[in-house]
Amino acid sequence: MHDETVLNMTGIKKSFNQVNVLHGVDFSLERGEIHALLGENGAGKSTLMNILGGVLQPDDGQIECHGHVMKMDGPHAAQQQGISFIHQELNVVPDLKVYENMFLGTEIRNKWGLIDVKEMCRQTQDVLSQLGVYIDPKAYVSSLETSYKQMIEIAKALLKQANIIIMDEPTSALTDQESDRLFELMRSLKKSGVSIIYISHKLKEITAVCDRYTVLRDGSLVGTGKIQDIDIDKITQLMVGKSVNTEAYDVDRTLGEPVLHVNNLTREREFRDISFSISKGEVVGFTGLAGDGRTELFECIFGYRKKQHGDIHVHGRKVTITHPQKALRSGIGFVPKNRKENAIIKDLNVIQNMSLSSLGHFENKGLINSKREKQKFSDYQQDLNIKVHDPSVMIDSLSGGNQQKVIIAKWLEVNSDVIIFDNPTQGIDVGAKNEIYQQIIAMADLGKAIIILSSEAPEILRFCNRLYVMFQGEITGHFPREAASEELIMEYATGSKKEAVKIGSSTEKTTQ
């Protein structure tokens, strides 16, 4: 790391509708360092970085970049200073090809003034190769997995030869192998003098790859220093303002009758011969590596996709689910992993997003009782600690974690018997994670059957009664929590171990 300051933000203040979001925050960045910007959702991290990226204007404070005081009066001004912002909510255009996304607004033209597709494809391929990613530059982005869309965002920053790169939760949709590849690239960029501001809630990543840290809490700077001088527990205390329990939850509850039973469910090239069951009050986890088919499986169960073979039974009755509405009527709820594309409706406010799937609960003679709707949201706001000063604001003005809590509130209001959570804490800080875990446990205590899809083995092991491991569209392992470990899960998730899974009641076990 070079001892040269490339960025100084001093006394940055920002408020929205008379609500102070940043209280005179200072932040500095050295040349060739990876600097962790930490804090809970709503702490002010995104606001501070949006000011640096020219998306927002500060109410007060100064930005000095490469030794010069700058006015970042728009994203273009930030780009001219070599600043590139890779947002957590991906900014790719699904209906365009990969190379078109890479050069959107900066298309290369030949000497006749025509767009030079061949050269753009060549440069796209070159920069993706640096990441160890091999995608057809002419492939439509809509056809790619989320992890590849994330890599395209990172590749765009490299293409622009940015010298300051802001990465907001860049590994939230990546596999462990893809994350390791990203870390190698970050270290390589660091050696070449590129500075990286790294926002992540995965604290193990922070300690592994970052040089320094800055922690914000409620819009104020509460700590900064070298990573080598602090541990994860201390970082967590700075972020939350108190110690956070990371012990496993007690899952020893009396289970009820089987609620959902799936038998030999198949959709070619995605998953095959999937069988499992779950009972009232049970929390069951499905885990594996990216591409294991678990998301496709449960999108099929919820009616987003059509099955080709197999049966689904709810409360012992066979159901045919060809549409999400039929899943809802069968008592199945689904919290998808991609909030931006599949969960929130950006043109509706916070309360409307909460009540959207249960409008009948608030209807009175054909009209929505907004007072009852607002009171119900207030209850969920308190239970889930949703941080929003005015629930009539558009939902996309909330942080990712608070958006996720609103979506969970929506499904709590629907009151489904079975609720599927696909990566429920993706991109969410440690404090909010614990609040969501506690809410999931409370739902199970009420007799709900909960299914958790997650690539994070520690998360699965903390509060699931049982877990299934998938590999290439098949269930390769199934065991109770007490028989599982991160190492064992990885063996089944990589296909190095595979067992015949016997399907029966919630007490079923696989011979170890």
List the helices and strands and how they pair.
Layout lengths: L4 E12 L2 E12 L3 E5 L6 H8 L7 E6 L2 E3 L4 H6 L2 E4 L11 H5 L14 H14 L15 H14 L4 E5 L7 H16 L3 E5 L3 H7 L2 E6 L2 E7 L5 H9 L17 E10 L3 E9 L3 E6 L5 H8 L7 E6 L2 E3 L4 H6 L2 E4 L3 H5 L6 H6 L7 E2 L2 E2 L1 H15 L15 H15 L3 E5 L7 H16 L3 E5 L3 H7 L2 E6 L2 E7 L5 H8 L19
Parallel strand pairs: 3-8, 3-9, 6-7, 7-8, 13-20, 13-21, 16-19, 19-20
Antiparallel strand pairs: 1-2, 1-4, 4-5, 9-10, 11-12, 11-14, 14-15, 17-18, 21-22
Textual characterization of the structure:
With 512 residues, the chain is α/β, with parallel strands linked by helices. The protein is built from 17 helices and 22 strands. The strands form 5 sheets. It has a 6-stranded mixed β-sheet with strand order 6-7-8-3-9-10, with helices on both faces. Helix 4 crosses helix 5. The longest helix is centred in the middle third of the chain and has 16 residues, at 176-191. The protein starts with a strand and ends in a 19-residue tail after the last helix.
